[in-house]
Amino acid sequence: MIKRAVYYIGNPENTVKLRRFFYITLILIVLLDVGVHLFHIEHTGDMSHNEQAAESLHNNGHAAGEGFIGEEIWGFWSVYGLIGCIIMIFVCKGIGHAWLMKKENYYE
Amino acid sequence: MSSLWINPAFLFILGSFLIPILKGRAKQTFLLLVPATAFLVVNSMSQGTYGAVQFLGMELIFGKVDRLSLVFAHVFTLMAFIGVLYGLHVKDDGQHIASFLYVGSSLGVTFAGDYVTIFIFWEIMAFSSVFLVWYRKTQKAVDAGFRYLLVHIVGGLFLLAGILLRYGEVGNFTFGPISPEGATLAIYLIMIGFCLNAAVPPIHAWLPDAYPEATVTGAVFMCAFTTKTAVYVLARAFAGFEILAILGAIMAVYGVCYAVIENDARRILAYHIVSQVGYMVCGIGIGSQMAVNGATAHAYAHIIYKGLLFMGAGAVLEMTGRSKLNELGGLYKYMPLALFFTVTGGISISGFPFTSGFISKSMTAEAAEGYKIFIFLMLMTASIGTFLSVGLKLPYFIWFNKDSGLKPKEAPLNMNLAMGIAAFICYFLGVYPKFLFDMLPYPVHWEPYTISHFAEVMQLLLFTGLGFLLLLKKLTPEPTLNLDVDWFYRKGSKVFMWVANKPIAIYEEYLGEVYNKWFTNFTLRFSNFLWRIFDVKIIDGIVNDIAGFWKDLGGVARLTQTGLVRNYAFFMLLGGIVFITYYLFK
């Protein structure tokens, strides 16, 4: 079973199908997030923010921060994931090429 | 009450002595039996303090058993079993012995109730694990092993200094929680010692330096124990130290950034240890019950999925002899099982729903959200990088992408079995988190599976995937070496050797010349002069007695001193001059 799935994914003929499937998943997951916001589904498990804040204050003397603003925005984490990923690649590769990357025998 | 308690640490340490005696099947059975027994022993252990020994007026406690030590011992023995199974085909007894001593000493630290015991096992850990690097038997591995050992010796010295200073302050070696208020130098020295083993930047570079050079099976052991025992001792002693929360968040991002530009599969994984341990250190620094729970849960999950990842990359290295991404590719037809296991590890480390990472990582992140938003966002950013490098880049460039022309077979049965068990645990914990949550040090009031949490994590990860697809070309692995802070001691040592060879040698030569020219010459002439006088006197035969006296004196001087007597005569004169000058100008 595993073999067959792997062969299917690796077969170049199926690339277009797989990509299409992936894009549909992306749309679905954003729709799910919109749904969560529209219907106000509780966002942090069975503990409300107040309880969490109280627990946090009780445990380590730090007052819990305000709920993160990003949680209120539709699709926030989609944008964060995409932009974060792109920035990370450009910044890391940029610093790498400018400074950190050396020839493999650098220390020899 | 200590009579019936068996220390699993000693099962491994004593067991290691039997390894060279046994042969064939008996040896393999024995190798598996020891971690299996230890696992059962840990499971049947009840809380309490056992194995107290009086030694040189100190009380050493070998068995402090509570919820925190139990959960770590549980996963350590479990991972030891998986690791031994994975390396069962290895013929080198030395590797098995080293890994047994290593696992045993890690367990020793886990159950230690005082700093002396911790320190002893801490050092055994360093000295046994280094052999797992050296057994690779390449020049690179030998060099990396020496660097690893030197760094750990320095870390051990920090720890020792802290322990002794602390003894001076409080008069005992008891190991327990420390309050962040009024922490002294001693406390911070201990913390530095612990943080070095946890690979907290800037003292982390030993890890990505040494682990990728270790043997295939050695790396599987190493990725589990050193950093996680450090997490354990930090969790016990330093919960609530804010500095750790900040350093942990930095670690989490630091590791993933290097992984983006790294080419060697096992070095990518090593940088991700730095990153993942960052979550744990951060959770410990936050210090709330939920955060410490999160750190502990993450350590448990991490040991298994990171072991799985190292096993997957190790299987490829074992079968192809390669671990650099630019030299690999197109293996999906030949090693589909290894791909499946590696991807399982990859999605677990990324925290996909229904894997172990989802239930553990989110707990720490959630605690961070209630603590400081910037730390929370740093952890979320690290999540992006984790999926990018380990979940996508690593499997893609090994198993897909271009065809490298390699046609390896699947790994041997025992390796696949070990990976299978680890993969099963990854999914099992993800589907049934209660198993892990019930072992955590504090009660868990948190439910990972809510629709909103699911949507949040899936968005973050899948859109990272989109970014990967868009920038695939940019991510093509490049065969380079990436500078890290180990530059300071790798280049630094070269500078030191250069200074020792060039300027100091020249200076010494110069000094030698000055000495010869002035000092020796002068002494020679002066003693010549003395000799001639004595000669004359001797010829005169008048002061034979005086000459005899000088001769005797010289004999005595020769016995008590090693140099030439005439040199000392000169010194006597010089001393006399100084003496007189002093009184003249007084």
Folded structure, characterized:
The complex is a heterodimer of chains A (108) and B (586). About 19% of the residues of chain A have low confidence. The longest helix of chain A has 25 residues. Chain A has a domain of 34 residues. Chain A is mainly alpha-helical. Chain A is 65% helix and 2% strand. With 586 residues, chain B is mainly α. Chain B folds into three domains: 237 residues, no CATH class; 249 residues, no CATH class; 83 residues. Chain B is built from 22 helices and three strands. Chain B has a two-stranded antiparallel sheet. In chain B, a hairpin with a 2-residue loop joins strand 1 and strand 2. The longest helix of chain B is centred in the last third of the chain and has 38 residues. The radius of gyration of chain B is 31 Å and the shape is globular. The termini of chain B are far apart. Chains A and B meet through helix 1, helix 2, helix 3, helix 4 and strand 1 of A and helix 10, helix 13, helix 14, helix 15 and helix 18 of B.
